Amino acid sequence: MTWDHVNGTSVAEVTDIAEVACDESGSDGENLTGGNTLVFAHASVRLPVETAAAHVQEIRDRIRSPAVEYKANHLLREKHRAVLEWLLSPEGPLYGHAHVHLVEKAFFVVDRAVDLLLDDPDAAVTLFREGRRTFGDAEWREFLTAANRLLRVRQAEGAQAPVEDFFHTVDRLRRAHSGSVPAGILERLAAARSRALSYRSEIDDGRAPLVPVLNPLLPSVVRTAAHWSAGGRPVLLAHDRQNMLTPDRIAWIEDTAHRQGIALAGVRLVAAREDARVQLADFLAGIARKIASDELNGLGEPALTTLLRPYTGPRAVWGDERSWGRLGPATETGGRCTGINSAV
């Protein structure tokens, strides 16, 4: 099955396809260390359009706000706590029909930097966890900022400046913490300067990658397709319109999914105001981002975190052990999944 990505016209001959509506929350582009949010959430809902519309109307009837367009912040207000708990509860409209893919932005930056320079997912996990403990908050923030700057495409500077800034930070930290586990990983990063220079030179020459390394949206769409197509049933994603989702990038999503054995039938873009399923996905994405961010900051409310757990999955890109121990789904043996998965 294929879809015209401009107008969403179906040219399908296959009919046994699950259509899932998607939206995101927490997008700061490539500014992952200096943006407004700590978490990126990509939510998806599988419901008939008519059913979703009835649920949206029920939410409006329960909240009774005069706002023309409802957003997640309506549900997150304390006076509407009962509506929020109902929405996520096993008795609510989303239970068993929705999923959210979570990305911890700081870990995503480390994962992408290590992938570019070392291609070693285990090193990314170790550096993220041990680096924070070893360097302290200020130095860890310095490292994250330098890594973000190295990878970011949209910046008006030559190829050398981000590279020199990053490796100056790496050299200073590995000397200051010589003998530590993260210093050993920084030693390996320091030896990969040529990879960083090559990457920045391509950007400087106008050959930036089609898929920005630091934007979590596109790999999150692939992971969402993987969730809903588990078992082999083809899935079509109806996604809220988003500037990042150009025809070329949608083609990348589909090609990446197919190469990974994911039964993605296609991606079409819709306007949220015209599709109640996307509105529900928008609610869930914003709610999940807020609950996950609070948990990451040690400010989580156990009741809300517990309600969110059935919607999260083991493929989250998440490095913080403590918070994921509360957010992540239980494993078959009753424990917790790790929540650590390298980006696509």
CATH architecture name of the largest domain: 2-Layer Sandwich
User: What CATH first level of the largest domain would be assigned?
Assistant: Alpha Beta
Overall tally of structural domains: 2
> What integer value in Å does the Rg equal?
21 Å
Helix percentage: 40-55%
Question: Poorly predicted ranges (pLDDT <50, ≥5 residues)?
Answer: 1-14, 332-337
Overall geometric form? globular
Specify the structural class.
alpha/beta
SS strand fraction: 5-15%
Number of helical elements:
14
Q: What average pLDDT do the residues reach?
A: 90
Strand order of the largest sheet: 3-2-1-4-5
Q: How would a crystallographer describe the biggest sheet?
A: 5 strands, mixed
- Secondary structure tally: strands: 5
Order of helices and strands: EEHHHEHHHHHHHEHEHHH
- Tell me the distance between the termini: 23 Å
Q: Write down the CATH topology of the largest domain.
A: Nucleotidyltransferase, domain 5
Walk me through this protein's architecture.
This protein has 344 residues and is of the alpha/beta class. It has 2 domains: 204 residues, 2-Layer Sandwich (Nucleotidyltransferase, domain 5), CATH 3.30.420; 89 residues, no CATH class. The protein has 14 helices and 5 strands. The N terminus is likely disordered. This is DUF3800 domain-containing protein.
Compact overview of the structure:
The chain is α/β, with parallel strands linked by helices and about 350 residues long. The protein has 14 helices and five strands.
